[in-house]
Amino acid sequence: MSEARDKMKAVLDWLLEAGIDQPVGDRPLDRYAEARQAREARAPAAAPVSHSPAQPSPAERSPTPRPATQGAEVHGSGVWEPAGGELRSAEQAVSDARGLAASARTVEELRAALERFDGVPSLKNSAGNTVFADGNPKARVMLLGEAPGAEEDRQGVPFVGASGQLLDRMLACIALTRADDAYISNVAFWRPPGNRTPWPAELAACLPFTERHIALKQPDYLLLLGGSAAKTLLARNEGVLKLRGRWFEYQSAEMASPVPTLVTLHPSYLLRQPAQKRLAWRDFLAFKAAMDER
After folding, report:
1. Would 72 be classed as within a structural domain?
2. Can you tell me the distance from the alpha carbon of 264 to that of 241, in angstroms, rounded to the nearest whole number?
3. Number of structural domains, the chain?
4. Residue 14 within a domain
5. Which residue among 97, 110, 128, 256 is least enclosed by CB atoms within 10 Å?
6. Kindly report the CA angle at 139 between 150 and 258, in degrees rounded to 5?
7. What is the CATH number of the domain that holds 122?
8. Quick check: is 174 in a domain?
């Protein structure tokens, strides 16, 4: 019996590590199929096609507007469907984000604006908390990761789970602490369902807040943790293993001068691939050396 309990505990621990931390039912549900069926149920019945010359051809007919669905979803074409609302383009979500972010004059105002933002329902509607930032707002270093995990979502603080504990140890190895020497955030502010990678449309809608966050913070250095942060902020297509260890100059339209920026591996990746810690160690040593020279 004890062996069976140990095996069950190992399975549960594995599920928690994978981000599966909330039971939702006793059978799997295909949410995409449910949304498709709901749209089909709301669609008007197709009228008989007349081939009379008096009727317009199918190419001349105006398309019937697609009804909104019950749940919020984002489609491959970059269209958001808020519950009970009109179809909303990803471009409109980005535009709304830019307006809210630009209105913030302090980091505190930016946090409040982010709380009001509803342009990423595929993330925000399933998250428990908005995860904004942690550490010392006056620190020289700003670190940016991908998105909150399960523990970050519960506490509303970035990098407090297993990957955050590893990050704290990595910082300590170069004589930095979260409380005094680092300011930490992400390029997505809500936990993606199941800890999946944020979609490009979601990152694009969060980007105006991240850009404003950096402009208001005015760090001396940026350290980008993982591929999502690097690709989003640097507009690069290479994988993180090609970007890591390289210095870039990050600058947005709101900034008077660029910020030296280093890309390294995300702590959660290092937990899955411990052999790659040697690469991250090299990056952190290079980062510390650059800080000491300036």
Report:
1. no
2. 8
3. 1
4. no
5. 256
6. 100
7. 3.40.470.10
8. yes
Count the alpha carbons within 13 Å of 205 in the hemisphere toward its beta carbon. 27
Sequence-ordered alpha helix ranges (H) in the chain? 2-17, 31-42, 90-103, 107-116, 121-124, 150-155, 162-173, 178-181, 200-217, 227-234, 240-243, 267-272, 277-293
**For 205-218, what is each residue's pLDDT tens digit?**
999 999 999 999 99
Q: Say if 27 falls within a structural domain.
A: no
For residue 184, the cross-strand partners are 134, 143
pLDDT-based confidence at 76, cuts 50/70/90? Answer: very low
Structure tokens at 140: 């020289």
Element (H, E) at 225: strand 221-225
Give the sheet arrangement for strand 134-135, strand by strand.
Answer: 134-135, 182-186, 141-145, 221-225, 259-264, 247-250
| Spatial distance between the Cα atoms of 165 and 152, rounded to a whole number of angstroms | 12
Residue among 64, 88, 95 nearest 74 (CA): 88
User: For 1-55, how does the pLDDT look when each residue is reduced to its tens digit (9 = 90+)?
Assistant: 577 776 667 666 665 655 555 555 545 556 566 666 666 665 555 444 444 444 4
Structure tokens belonging to residue 245: 């260890």
Structure tokens at 72: 């919020």
Phi, psi of 225 (to 5 degrees): -100, 100
Enclosing domain of residue 236: 90-293
d(CA 217, CA 228): 21
